[in-house]
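I am hoping you can look over what I have pasted underneath with an eye to the fold:
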Amino acid sequence: MKERRKRDVGSWGRFFWCTFFVVISCVIVTGFTFSTFTIFGEKSRPVLVSSWRKHALEAITGESYIPPAISIRETVIFPDQELVFLKYPQSARLFNKDELDCLYFSPNSSDTHIKLPPEDVDHQIVRCPSRPHGFTLSLALKSNVLLPPGPTHQWDYLVYEALIDRDNTTVAFVKGLNLKPERASDPTRFECVYGWDFRKPKFLLRSEVVSIAQEIVRCKTPLSVLNNPQRLNSTIKVSVRMKGKGAILHSVAEPKHRSPPDPPVRKPHVMCICTMVRNQARFLREWVMYHARIGVERWFIYDNNSVDNIEKVLESLQAGKFNVSRHLWPWIKTQEAGFAHCSLRARDSCEWVGFIDVDEFLHLPAGVSLHDVVWNQSSTIAELRISCYNFGPSGLTRVPPKGVAVGYTCRLTAPERHKSIIRPEALNSTLINVVHHFHIRNGFDFLNVDRGVMVINHYKYQVWEVFKEKFHRRVAAYVADWQDDENVGSKDRAPGLGTRAVEPPDWSNRFCEVMDTGLRDRVLQMFEDPETQRMPWQEHQEDDEVESSILMEQLRSKRVVYSEPL
């Protein structure tokens, strides 16, 4: 009997340990396959690579493929470049442009591949030249480690940004809806979709559209998304679908909370400015320093794919105690959407926000302060409309050394249009805006500011060296590019210029009808050093211009045009 008991105990013991071993093995294999796991106190996430990609990448380098710590999250194809979004592990070091190559290879051939340096690397975004026809884009580290390609999206139809507003709605920014400017559309024709993989409809959350206008869709955020903050920090995305047609737009937009649920009782800043720039770093110092002197306290700089060392200029301004921040906004021709995004960011810290460009200067001819102008408005005034005067090259052929406000002094007689300073709390929930002009809520009104109190000097037509950059690409969605043969008679064009970046013989003397030295005289009085006759921004301006020219020339030399498939 005792022997039988011993055998039974031994059998059950062996069965227990065998079962335990099988369960642990399954857990380990599952961890290796699907999730982040910990070994010796270090976290690791395996990278799964499809067999054709793995073999193609091995063939290109002649070495075994080793999954890297970083990965390509996804790629967005623009007309003239591609954005590759990287996914880094927590606390990982970010790579710079000298450590990466853009790698182009044919999925059907392991012998044909091309390596080109990236145009720029900015945090987690790598900008690569456009791929040749029939090729796949990936990235290669200079250490011969290759990253497998991620999902690819066309820019024409894409949900590209999203944030969760203080009322718990999701504000999504969408390309490809082709809605009319300055007009709200019927929200019942659309629905919002949340999920991790839009190819699996069973695992998607759908919600109603609250409002839709231009490129901005406001969605009712599902409670399961709002009530689980961890999901907001994962890869959950939001997209938009037109009802009845089935197709869900591709999306790279991960909604994040942007604002606290309740507005602050007292905002830290009276006057702020939002702007969008592309390769305007050499003009930022003058623009920021001048507006700080007249009362601007905070600047939101939306960087639209600059390659002119703008980070260095902004760091220098920050070191000088100017409250400037850079927000990377890589989406082309989306100025209106960018300004709407900025209005939500600025709303919690700014009583008033101006939306002007870096070549536009607020000028107060009567000598009053900007704070005096905005504080003297009644509580029902939510928008100040300011007339714009367009200045020409003023006889100059080179960039004026003391800055644009001192150098350009001849303008057209009549103002062209207005730009706005708004109370962000009073904006219409659709966030409709065109040419820096927002729609405001019912119950609020606008005021046309007297030109003797405040105007905008718009240094629109500068020396040709500066002006010709406009031919590359305009930032506004509803403004045609200069080289496009459409809307040729628009006010956004230079009259009589045409669509080619060829300098007219009389360019330096164009757009000159009235001599206007009012802002020039005030800037000289405020800033010129009486001993050296230099302006404070000139200390770095020469270096900025040299670095900018070098970087722009390097970029032009890197651009590759493929006339046929390689």
